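Hi everyone, sorry if this is the wrong subforum. Our group has a chain we'd like a structural model of before ordering constructs, and none of us has done structure prediction before. Sequence below.
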Amino acid sequence: MPKRTGKSYSFYPRRRKSGTIWFVRWRQPDGTWNAGTSTGCTTKADAEAHVERQLIATGRPQRRSGRRVPFDAFARDFWKPDGPYVKMRLAHGHSLGPTYVRNQQRHVDAYLVPTFGSRPLDEIDAVTIDGWLVELYHHGRPIEVWDRKQKRTVKKRRPLSGATLNGVRKCLVHIFAEAKRQRLIRENPMDEVPALKENRRRRSVFRLHELQALVDPGRLGDVWNGDERMRLLLGTAILTGARQAELRALQPRFVQSGAIHIVHALDDDPVNGGLKPPKNGHTRWAPLPPRLGQSLLEWAEANRIPADGFLFADPPFERPLSKDRITKRFYRALAAIGIDGEQRRERRLVWHGLRHSFATAARSAGVDKWQLMQTVGHLDERTNESYSDHAEVEHLTGVVEFQDRFVEQLALTVPATAREVVG
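Answer:
Right subforum, don't worry. Here is the predicted structure as C-alpha cells:
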C-alpha cells in the first residue's frame, strides 16, 4: 500500500536489467490508487521533479504538505559557496561575488537563524517579518557587552542602519523565493515586506590642499616616515579612483606608463582569501599619468620586484601590505598634516574617501559620466557588453585630460630615480 504523504501521488521503485526505475501511482477520487506507470527516472528525486513538471504543465501544482521544512534547516547552508543555490544562480548568469555570498551568510548566522530558528517556513508570514525588521530599525539589536565599571556582562541594544536591515531583508527575499520555487510554500511573504528607509550619510571627500600635503615629496619624512612606497600608493589611488583592494593586488605585469590593468583585488579572508576578480567581476584599464606610471615601473625595477610580485609589499614582495597596516600609516599621515582623530571621525575620512575625492573632482571638471564609470569600475552589464576590455583606455580621453590637470593641481612629483624600499 502506498505511503500516506498528503499528496495525490506516490512512488515506488522497480528493478530492471538496465537498473532501478521509479514508478508513480495516482490517488483516485474514491481514495484508491491506480496502477503504477513508469516515470523513466532512475532516482526518486528525478521522478518527483518529473511529476511536478507534469502537474504544473496541466495546471495542477501541488503544495508539498508532507514537507514542512524548518527555517534553520533550509537557510543555514543556503549561501554555501559550493551549495546548490549559489551554483544555480551562477549557472543562470547572475553575479555573486565571494564577498557578497559571505555577507549574506553573516545575515543568516547573525540575524535570521537566531530569530526564526526551527519555525516551519510556511508559518513565517509578512506581518511577522515586517514587525521584526521595524523593531530592529527603531530599537536596534539586543546584544551582551562587558561593562568595565560593573565588571559584568550587561544587555544593550546596538543600533542598526536602514541599509544593514535592507541587506537582511534582501537575504530573506532570496530564501523565500527559492522556497516557493521548490514548492515548499504557497506564497512568498517577502512580496508584502517593503524596504526600510535609508539615511545615507554624505560621502567623505578630501580637500585639495590636504591631498597636496599627502603627496608633497618635501614632506615625505614627517608624513610618511620616508616611505616612498606609501606615497606612490596614495598617489595612484588619488589619480585613478581604484579601490584599495585592487591596488594592493597590483603587479608589475599589469602596469604601463599610461595605464594600469586592474585584473585582481585582494581578499583578506583568512580562510578563503587571496586574489579574486575586482568588484562586480569585471577587469578594466584605468588611465594613469605617464610620469606616475613610469615611476611605478622604475620602483618595480629598482626593488627587483618580479612580474607576478606585488608593487605595494614588503621585500621579497610576495605578500601585499595588509589593510590594517595601510590604515594605521594613513591615519598617522593625516595627523601629520593636521587632521587629528576627532576631525577625521567627524568628517568620516577614510582611505575610500580618496576614491570619492577622485570621482567628485572628475565630475566637477566635466568628465563624462560613462568614462568615469569605466575608470573607477562602476559598470553595468549593458556597458560591459558594449565595449571591449582592450578598447577602454582609448575611449577615456576625458579622464586622461582631467588627470593631467589634476596632477598639476596636486603638484604631484615623482623621484627622478626610484629608491629601494627599506624593509
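For your construct planning: Strands lie at 9-16, 19-26, 37-41, 141-147, 152-158, 255-256, 259-262, 265-267, 274-276, 284-287. The first strand starts at residue 9 and ends at 16.
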